[in-house]
Design brief:
- It is a single chain.
- About 55% of the residues lie in helices and about 15% in strands.
- With about 230 residues, it is an alpha+beta fold.
- The protein has two domains: about 130 residues, no CATH class; about 90 residues, Beta-Lactamase (2-Layer Sandwich), CATH 3.30.450.
- It has a five-stranded antiparallel β-sheet with strand order 2-1-5-4-3.
Length: about 230
């Protein structure tokens, strides 16, 4: 159920991490384009504006070679970026890129690795927060149910609630109709701060509950936490 929680990683990333990759690619490509334009203009001048047309042949070859190298660099960077994004999509943070300072891709690889570490830390923080909430709910003596208000999937439920409703697990709020047909609708309708009473029948005995609820936003997901006290 932890995977259902939503985290906006883009807004959580530091500003320098979000822009480093774009700045690196833009700078390197801009330098190459300026060099191609400069060599192209020089080639035109040598061919048509000076008697050194033989030198123009060499500058023309250099221009074509640099153009070919630039296209190869962009293609290679795109393939590396695709591989990087694919690894993030699959939650695979083990992918790293070699940071050789003498390599032409040093800045690009450094930016990839920096972003990868940031995503890894955010994922660890997300899992820690979920584990903390799970521990708090599980160890509460009061029956607690926490569910997504839109999908009505149960996010967390403690043993006290399972014991109260005499069920081994609860995946959907609608499944509580087995306890009482009006219970799911009651849990949906109860408002924050409101203290309501509800009666369930277990083994021929009436059990009266005092119920309160609170809304909370956890990792981007809107949740409703309901506490049920025995009266």
């Amino acid at each position: 159920m932890a995977g259902d929680a939503v985290v906006d990683l883009k807004t959580r990333l530091p500003a320098d991490s979000r822009t480093t990759l774009k700045r690196t690619l833009r700078y390197k490509i801009a330098i190459r384009l300026i060099a191609i334009c400069s060599l192209g203009c020089l080639t035109g001048y040598l061919f048509f504006g000076s008697p050194y047309w033989l030198a123009g042949i060499w500058t023309a070859l250099a221009t074509v070679g640099l153009f070919h190298a630039t296209v190869g660099y962009v293609d290679q960077s795109e393939r590396k970026l695709t591989a990087f994004l694919q690894s993030l999509r699959q939650n695979d943070f083990s992918v790293t890129f070699p940071e050789n300072s003498s390599s032409d891709d040093y800045d690009l690889h450094q930016a990839f690795n920096s972003l990868n570490d940031t995503f890894k830390n955010l994922r660890s923080e997300k899992e820690s927060q979920h584990h903390l909430l799970q521990v708090i709910v599980e160890h509460a003596a009061v029956p607690l149910i926490c569910f997504h208000e839109s999908e009505e999937d149960v996010f967390l439920v403690n043993d006290a609630a399972k014991s109260l409703f005499q069920v081994p697990f609860i995946q959907k709020i609608d499944s509580l109709w087995r306890v009482d047909r009006s219970l799911p609708e009651f849990l949906r309708e109860i408002s924050d701060g409101e203290k309501s009473s509800f009666r369930i029948v277990q083994k021929g005995r009436s059990l009266y509950l005092s119920v309160t609820s609170r809304h909370l936003v956890f990792q981007g997901a809107k949740l409703k936490l309901v506490a049920l006290y025995r009266r």
